[in-house]
Specification:
The chain is built from 9 helices and 8 strands. With 290 residues, it is of the alpha/beta class. The chain has a domain at 116-259: 2-Layer Sandwich (Nucleotidyltransferase, domain 5). The strands form 2 sheets. It has a 5-stranded mixed sheet. Strands 1-2-3 form a 3-stranded antiparallel sheet, with no helix packed on it. The chain starts with a helix and ends with a helix. The protein binds zinc ion. Residues 23, 25-26, 28, 45, 47-48, 50 line the site of zinc ion.
Length: 290
């Protein structure tokens, strides 16, 4: 794998200094170029006498790896595990993992909570995740849906099988994944937070949804009974949620061992990708170089 670091840095500068080079301390544009190549490009502020470089005050300031490789990690974050990336880059796994976490934290910071009116699908799934991740080759998959629907052995944080509550707004397809410690008692709060004024809600028959219709914002609640082969009756389905759950599982399979305390970070990354599609990398990049 060949990454052209000069090209990567030119790209970085075109974003970071799009208005011209300015002093990170006082904002002055009276800047002297003090030379240096690659990472070493240095500047001097005529107004306040500060020396700085292309990365001063950014996420990349103390970077151990070149910008081109940060870009590469960013663009591969959905296709390769930390281990694979470390091997291909020839870096310590910890170093790559650190970037991976930083990028995920950026995603979290830039996460926009949205509330909508209209039709929603609510559904829950369970993801296996332990204290330090899970053992190799243990699939993330929940037991087959039918079995899970027997209401016995639903997951909780304590048994390393975390409930993920998924909300899809049908009009926009906007998706929200919430990793919860316990599903009960949270449904009202979810409606409060994600419904602006009025909602029609589709769910399965799980008892946690029984009181939905009593919520002041819920104008109608339809339940789909998976158990009786009534998978998708016209409008009454949670197929968008099912689709999101598949995407989430496929994404999590890249990582051999997700810690249960980190699961929300991973789900946010996938949520971000689903909601912003190809624009997501540009958005993260913009945040990194700001
Ligand atoms: Zn200055």
């Amino acid at each position: 794998m060949v990454i052209d670091e000069e090209e990567a840095l030119n790209f970085y500068r075109s974003l970071h200094w799009s208005c011209g080079v300015y002093c990170p301390s006082c904002g002055s544009f009276e800047i002297n170029n003090r030379g240096g190549r690659g990472r070493g490009k240095r500047y001097y502020c005529e107004d306040c006498g500060t020396f700085f470089n292309d990365f001063t005050g950014t996420f990349l300031e103390r970077s151990k790896i070149p910008f081109g490789e940060v870009l590469w990690i960013l663009t591969n974050i959905h296709n390769k595990s930390v281990k694979q990336m470390a091997e291909e880059l020839g870096h310590n796994r910890k170093t790559v993992a650190r970037y991976h976490k930083l990028i995920r934290d950026l995603l979290e910071k830039n996460h926009v909570d949205s509330s909508f009116d209209g039709t929603f699908e609510f559904d829950e799934t369970y993801i296996i995740a332990g204290r330090k991740g899970i053992k190799k080759n243990v699939p993330f998959d929940e037991p087959p849906r039918r079995r899970a629907l027997k209401r016995r052995g639903r997951g909780t944080y304590d048994v390393d099988k975390l409930p993920v509550f998924t909300i899809v707004h049908r009009g926009t397809k906007y998706t929200i994944f919430l990793v919860l410690k316990n599903l009960r008692k949270v449904v009202d709060g979810i409606v409060d937070e994600f419904v602006k004024n009025e909602a029609i809600v589709h769910t399965d028959e799980y008892v946690i949804y029984n009181n939905l219709i009593n919520h002041e914002k819920v104008v109608a609640h339809y339940t789909v009974n998976h158990g009786e082969g009534e998978y998708a009756k016209g409008e009454n389905h949670v197929n968008n949620d099912e689709n999101r759950h598949s995407l989430l599982r496929r994404f999590l399979r890249i990582f051999r061992g997700v810690s249960k305390d980190n699961l929300q970070g991973y789900t946010l990354l996938e949520q971000f990708r689903i909601n912003y599609k190809t624009d997501s990398y540009d958005m993260i990049l913009q945040t990194i170089v700001e």
